[in-house]
Amino acid sequence: MKLSRRDVLKLSGLAAVGGAGLAIPLGHGVSGSSASLLPSKNMPIPYSNVFSRLPVLPKSMTAEHPTGTDAYPADGRGPIDYYDIAALPGSARLVPGFPATPLLGYEGMIPARRIDVDTGTRIVMRMHNKLHLTDIGLNSPLNLSTHLHGSASLPQYDGYAADLTMPGQVKTYHYPNVQTARTLWYHDHGAHWTGQNVYSGLASQYHLHDAMERALLPQGEFDVGLIISDMMFQANASLLFDDRTHAGLWGDVILVNGKPWPVMKVKKRIYRFRVLDASISRSFRFTTSPQAPLRVVATDAGLMPRSQEVTQWRHGTAERYEILIDFSGFRAGQRIELQNLSNPNNRDFNNTNKVMAFDVVDDQFDTNDPGARVMPEVLNYSNDCMALQETPGMKVRTIRVEHDDTTNTWSLNGMTWDEIVTSGYRKVIANPGLGDTEIWEIQNNSGGWFHPVHIHLIDFKVLSRNGKPPFPWELGPKDVIYAGEGERVRLIMKFGSRVPGDPFGVQVGKYMVHCHNLVHEDHDMMSQFSVGLPADPTGTMVQAGYVDRNDPVTADPAVTDPAL
Fold first, then answer.
1. Which among 174, 176, 173 has a CA at the least distance from the CA of 165?
2. Which of 20, 30, 180, 192 is the most buried (most CB within 10 A)?
3. Number of C-alpha atoms within 13 angstroms, CB side, residue 10?
4. In terms of C-beta distances under 8 Å and separation of at least 24 residues, what long-range contacts does 365-368 make, across chains too?
5. Where does residue 333 rank: exposed (0-12), middle (13-18), buried (19+ CB within 10 A)?
6. Strand 115-118 vs strand 203-209: parallel, antiparallel, or unpaired?
């Protein structure tokens, strides 16, 4: 392959930076022309690809369940849908002039197909690890742990980082789906390799529906999932994974549903977009140009009490925001761009200010659909999470996100995941009782960095940010919080219920809390908390000898796959 003088200079410059072992400078962002090692003529061109919707994963139809559903299970607790999914090598055509880039995907598809389910319908999902050594340019051992992000699952089905499914094994996951409608996503969560596995393609959305959400927001064709991520490429179009000495990975190619900078045709009406930042490290500040009417209607954990009109919003990795965009005021043939204004401490390149484009068409639609013309303001006053209030004497915990410059290690309250492993998985950062309501203060002490902190199991309400009200787009239930540089964010959350028969009452055990900059999580900003488990006298360890029936590693582990 012949490289131009410009390409040679680009390669030598990147090599010099890498050889110096430099990470992101603290306190400000960095810009450059590109990060990929591709010849310039092969770089993907913005707005040259057609947008692809996320296809729906079909249920697994077997002789026992010919429709893929058990409508009347023996336990009488509501229907069960069944899915069989295999993690497989895959590929995608991402770089002009090259064969498809080798990737990993659920069913070998990048991105994987989404799952749709109604509240009250449980899911039983068999996840097969059929991965093998492939030339994808990475060195992950391909051990998997599937996390349904946003689900109140039992610990043994929550994608605990040490609950691994090795190649040649299968694990059966049970998802209760007892929560209100929301946009969840499923992705790999294996300890120390989450970043590489998700970067390779092991992720997709999971839509939980209920009657309230269906009545208020656009459905079907006008309910659109967007998985936004970034990548960079080797000179041969294989993946380039450069975490800049455990600082983070910022690619120079923005992907939407697996396509670089695609273009979507839209009708002159309101659309609902479920926006997921599935990048490894990059945060976004989204806006439209020209400015279109925008309303945020749902956050990570479902509908907001009231929709919020915005012109832009800050969006960290793993956060989900559901946005209504009204295209009715634009003329047919007009183009509206979804752009990225970025945030401090990203790495920005020539085209990372672009995300995708919408081309308005004059096609027909049902004008009697109320969601076509009206953006609702009042949405959900019945959300238990948003009704939580701080009271005198309420337990307050401080969670510090920190970086040790000497060891180049990320931690929470100075604790690393390795310390939890060394403790026999007994050490915890918090130990709330079942039914407790607590306030957690997330304090970013790490210098010039931002951290999206994810708390498994629960939904929380944002009380304040540096003593001020939350941003308008945060005024809904969440499970990831953007902890910006020097910020202190107060959250309130309830850990289940003691009410007999309440399905949340069974979520007792150990759950994870970590940074969702997946490079930081892998090195080593990940911890765990316990819910309803007895503690030792120090309060920092699960009581020695306690038998945890929901132990996330041993209660229901992966087994040898009989299908292989």
1. 173
2. 180
3. 17
4. 365/222, 365/267, 365/269
5. exposed
6. parallel
Structure tokens, 448 = 């010039």
Contact 259, 49 (CB under 8 A): yes
Strands 223-231 and 270-277: what pairing? parallel
- Give the distance, in angstroms, between the CA of residue 424 and the centroid of all CA atoms in the same chain: 28
Asked if the domains 49-216 and 385-559 are classified in one and the same CATH topology, the answer is yes
3 state DSSP class of 281 = coil
Residue 466 is given by DSSP the state T
Complete edge-to-edge strand list for the sheet that includes strand 460-465: 409-412, 395-404, 437-444, 488-494, 460-465
The pLDDT tens digits for 337-372 are 999 999 999 999 999 999 999 999 999 999 999 899
Give the helix, strand, coil percentages of the chain, each rounded to 5.
10, 35, 50
Tens-binned pLDDT, residue by residue, of the chain (564 aa): 333 333 333 333 333 323 222 232 322 345 678 999 999 999 999 999 999 999 999 999 999 999 999 999 998 888 999 999 999 999 999 999 999 999 999 999 999 999 999 999 999 999 999 998 877 878 899 999 999 999 999 999 999 999 999 999 999 999 999 999 999 999 999 999 999 999 999 999 999 999 999 999 999 999 999 999 999 999 999 999 999 999 999 999 999 999 999 999 999 999 999 999 999 999 999 999 999 999 999 999 999 999 999 999 999 999 999 999 999 999 999 999 999 999 999 999 999 999 999 999 999 999 999 899 999 999 988 889 999 999 999 999 999 999 999 999 999 999 999 999 999 999 999 999 999 999 999 999 888 899 999 999 999 999 999 999 999 999 999 999 999 999 999 999 999 865 555 555 578 999 999 999 999 999 999 999 999 999 999 999 999 999 999 999 999 999 999 988
Enter the CATH code of domain 385-559: 2.60.40.420
Q: What is the CATH number of domain 220-372?
A: 2.60.40.420
Nearest to 191 by CA among 542, 556, 518, 559: 518
- How far apart CA 7 and CA 340 sit, in angstroms, is 26
Q: Residues near 274 by Cβ (< 8 Å), separated by ≥ 6? A: 183, 205, 207, 223, 224, 225, 226, 320, 322
CA distances (Å), 457 to each of 358, 494, 506, 527, 530, in order? 36, 10, 12, 14, 11
**What number does CATH give the domain 49-216?**
2.60.40.420
Say which residue the tokens 């400000």 belong to.
Answer: 28
Question: Residue 432 corresponds to which tokens in the numbers above?
Answer: 């709330």
pLDDT digits (tens, 9 = 90+) for 473-511: 999 999 999 999 999 999 999 998 655 555 555 789 999
